[in-house]
């Protein structure tokens, strides 16, 4: 029985694919999987523990849900990576999702995943960097039930964005 070169190549390819699969299975780099809620919504992996430390920002109370207020926000010009604390107070019975949009155009600059009560995101990646200037914006706060992830009441916080 003569083994042809083609059969040897096929067997070698199968062995290599098997070895590569085993290597990938056991030695691949660890990946952080998004944590999904019961309805397939994703918790924000960048959210970190937060204690009500928003200096100079008022809290408005709407239907028992505490919504942080925001004064003038300052971002660096032409930068997509910016610092801003978007927090969900610990007392809230819901997840928050933040959307930052420019008033004039309605352009959405940022959308968070769900943020649990007592957590906050502090570093944001905007859709684009803004040119220097003054902008009017709104921070939309979408709320979702902790148990069913059904939409609850929403809030809109108006703010000014100073880009320097």
From TrEMBL:
Q: Mind telling me what this protein is named?
A: tRNA (Uracil-5-)-methyltransferase
The keyword Transmembrane helix appears for this protein: yes
Alphabetically list the UniProt keywords: Membrane, Transmembrane, Transmembrane helix
Transmembrane segments in this chain: where?
7-27
């Amino acid at each position: 029985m003569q083994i042809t070169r083609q059969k040897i190549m096929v067997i070698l390819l199968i062995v290599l694919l098997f070895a590569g699969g085993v290597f990938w299975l056991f030695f691949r780099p660890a990946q952080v999987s998004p944590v999904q809620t019961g309805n397939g919504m994703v918790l924000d992996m960048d959210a970190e523990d937060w204690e009500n430390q928003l200096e100079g920002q008022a809290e408005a109370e709407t239907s028992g849900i505490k919504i942080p207020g925001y004064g003038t926000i300052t971002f660096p010009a032409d930068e997509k990576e910016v610092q801003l604390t978007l927090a969900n107070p610990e007392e809230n019975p819901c997840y928050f999702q933040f959307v930052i949009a420019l008033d004039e155009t309605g352009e959405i600059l940022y959308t968070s995943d769900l943020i649990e009560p007592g957590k906050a995101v502090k570093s944001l990646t905007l859709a684009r960097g803004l040119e220097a200037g003054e902008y009017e914006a709104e921070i939309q706060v979408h709320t979702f039930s902790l148990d069913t992830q059904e939409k609850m009441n929403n809030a809109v916080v108006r703010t000014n964005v100073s880009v320097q």
